[in-house]
Amino acid sequence: MRLCRVHRAVVQALSLALLSCLLMAPPLLASGPERVVILPFTANSKEDVSFLVKGVRDMLATRLSWQDKVTVVEPDLVAPAAARIKPPYNEDKARQLGKELNAQVVVFGSLTVVGQSVSVDAALVKVAGDAPPLTAYVQTSDLDSVIPRINDFAMRINAEVFQRPEALAALKKSDEASRRMVGSEETKEARAMETAEGEALEKLPENISPLNPLFLKTLSGVDSDRYWRSPRINGTITSVAVGDIDGDGKNELLVLLPDSLRVYRLAGEHFALIHEFKNGPAGIYLYVDVADIAHTGRPQIFVSSLNNKLADSFVLQWQEGGLRMISKPQNIYYRTQPKPGGKGHMLIGQRSAIDSPFFGPVWEMKWDGKDFVPDKEITMPRMGNVFNFAMVDLNGSGKGQMVMVGHSYDLRVFTDQGDMTWSSAESYGATGKYIPFTPGSGQGYEEVWWYLPGRIIPVDMHGDGRQEVVVVRNMDRADGLLDKMRMFYQGTIYDLYWNGMQLVENWRTPNISGYLPDYAVGDVGNVGRPALIMAVGQRSFKGWMEADTSHVVAFTLKPQKKPIRQPKGL
Prior knowledge:
The chain is about 15% helix and about 40% strand. It has two domains: about 30-175, TolB, N-terminal domain (Rossmann fold); about 195-555, Neuraminidase (6 Propeller). The model is unreliable at about 1-10, about 15-30, about 180-190, about 190-205, about 215-225 and about 540-545 (pLDDT under 50). Strands 1, 2, 3, 4, 5 and 6 form a six-stranded mixed sheet that branches. Strands 7, 8, 33, 34 and 35 form a five-stranded antiparallel sheet that branches. It has about 575 residues and is α+β, with helices and mostly antiparallel strands.
């Protein structure tokens, strides 16, 4: 009897030791399936949409499960860890949960329901490393359309993360359709359609632009091949630019935030972060410009920054697989512009002072082999500065006329001799960016905010050699009457052309809810067709706290092949 008890004790001890070894041993990832954790999506809705949250989770679990290759962790096992690490989830929290649950991949996101409209932000992160997440943004007009769109995201995960053969084949098959978002390579059918569209241009109503039928229409029911919006970007986008910064023949989208610069690649519906420049020079980053001023074959990236009330701007270039600083911060603001006549770009610069937002002349800059230095002084009206003008070939002469945003946000046109020939009755170019300065020393002098205008972008959408200007109109609830507050609620982009007497409207975008801090025109989709790219800011107030979020919006442009005759003027 005593021997039996000893025997049982030994067996129990050995069993516990074996169980402990199994629990403490590291997972054999190479031989076992990859584990995926799907966190409950955060619901933002006045109504109970738990059924939709469950449906999204079930759809993802069904589509991602792959026998002997991928296993989805059961919700009952996820719940205890999710109770300790509470939502809302981000990359860091997702990776922490993934480590606790011994998973290699974590999927998380949010659902927002307003009326019948539903939007879903979804992201996938790999637990190991710090690779940028795979993201998806889904927007539908009803609840029934959400699950099929989530199925598309699952297909992307299977193809891009797990390299599942059938998903790769399906993704390849749908590639042409997805690329229609910002245009696609022309097929015979597309060329025939464009011919028919060309014949119909003359039949369009006067208030519809042939560049994009959505211009002057509302945003409801927008087709994906005419309009695109990025997933939500936390933070305030201050500026955007488009350029082939790495020299691979494909354009990248540069998104500037107050303290970092992100580089995205847009291909079809895929919007991927490929690099982020952070922990850079101190300051508030105001504008980003891209142009090959040094003639190296690879463009330079000019970041205009404000630090302690002075310009403190720097220059980057893509080297060795990332952005490297080639010009250290110095007291100068930068702006690049296309040269009139289509001969590359020029770099404009101007210094600042403690008691003035701008100091000294406006210069055309050059590369001297070591740095960017002043070359030629640009003759400017007294109100002119580096940010409020552009040289535009309005009449096709090959020479630029100065178009400028005045103090009251009126557009002004100057002749070659510097005489003002026209001023607009409407206001354009208001933004929320500002440079603080104190106009004098001693008592009685208060800090003043000098607000910066939006860009003036010269473009030739008609192909007739005469440039138009693309400008913004942001609507302020206070109408600019508050010295240190702007409450923008709506923005519109306008294209204006010179009719011989004045700048008149050629087309405009729909009114866009929010604030448009910056915009650009370029082939962001790498499809041989330009797009109008806009940063759109939204601000939500929660008690005394406010949170900024942003998106990037793109409209396809279809430049007219037949030039439109316009009076030269000037």
